[in-house]
Every structure is written in structure tokens, then in C-alpha cells.
Amino acid sequence: MGYTAQVAPYTYNDIMPRLRKNAQLAAATCTGGASGTACGLKWNTGPKFDGIMGLGEQLSALEVIQNTAPFVAPVGYLVDIDNGGVSKSNPNGTGTRGGVHNRNSQYLPYRLRNYDITLADRVGAAIITLVIVVVFALGARFTMIH
């Protein structure tokens, strides 16, 4: 919802009051656990810890609180030449070469080419893949031992 309010400014006035209220309730549930900072998940029951705690609950509370942090009221309009835009347009769209796209330019040697895949290419790819798989397998084995 926070992202929607950011990219669609006309939804800001509908979404942000609800999001702020949820953020307040989410923060109010963060009073549980041994340290008194674990967050609950049931915000609709009021500003109290519900006894359910875990990583998911912490991240849910963080998400709703974080969605309210970067917001200021949106501008509400797109910038164009009549209200603050400074870029000059070129309605002809000709670019710098006057609309002529020369396929035989100095950049022709650098264009992408399709090459045939040879047996050497396949063997090289297989060796590289095998090395990567072995490195990952050894790394996983090493972490299990220690």
C-alpha cells in the first residue's frame, strides 16, 4: 500500500491515514518477549502484545512502520514544460544525425554477432559448470563439518 501511495499520488489521501494507523498499532504491539521489544501480529485487537512472536511478526511490523517513513505529501502532478520542466523536446525525433540511421557507420564492427556454438565451447562450459558445482559442494560440506 505504501508503494501504491508513492507511485499513484491520487491514492495518497486514502491510503496514508490507514497506513499510519496500522503503523501505530504495529508499534504498540512491540512490547513482548524477554526483552520487551518483540512485536505481535494481531494489530486489530488493539495496542497490546498478542503473545505471538517470531521473525515474521517482527518483519511485518517493520514493514508497515517503514512504509510511512519516507512519505511527504506527493506533488500531485507530472512535471512538463508548463509547470517546471526544463527539457526541450524535439518533435521530429531526429537525434543528432538528422534522422538518417547509417548502418555502415564506424560502430558496425562492434555490433552483436551470433556465433555457432562449437564442441570446444560446450566442453569449456561443462568444465566451468563442473568447477562451480564442486566448489559449492565442497563449501557446503565444509560448513556442515565445522
Q: Mind explaining what this structure looks like?
A:
With 146 residues, the chain is mostly helical. Among the domains are: 2-66, no CATH class; 118-145. Helices cover 42% and strands 0% of the residues. The chain is built from four helices and no strands. The longest helix has 27 residues, at 119-145. GO terms for molecular function: mannan endo-1,6-alpha-mannosidase activity. Keywords: Glycoprotein, Glycosidase, Hydrolase, Membrane, Signal, Transmembrane, Transmembrane helix. Pfam families: Glyco_hydro_76 (PF03663).
Fraction of residues in β-strands: under 5%
Low-confidence parts:
none
Average pLDDT number = 80
Order of helices and strands: HHHH
Structural class: mainly alpha
By DSSP (H or I, 4+ residues per run), the number of helices equals 4
* Main beta-sheet annotation: none
Rg calculated over all Cα atoms: 28 Å
Measured between the Cα atoms of the first and last residue, the distance is: 44 Å
Task: Report the strand count.
Answer: 0
What is the overall silhouette?
Answer: flat
Helix content: 40-55%
Walk me through the topology.
Blueprint lengths: L1 H6 L4 H17 L26 H12 L52 H27 L1
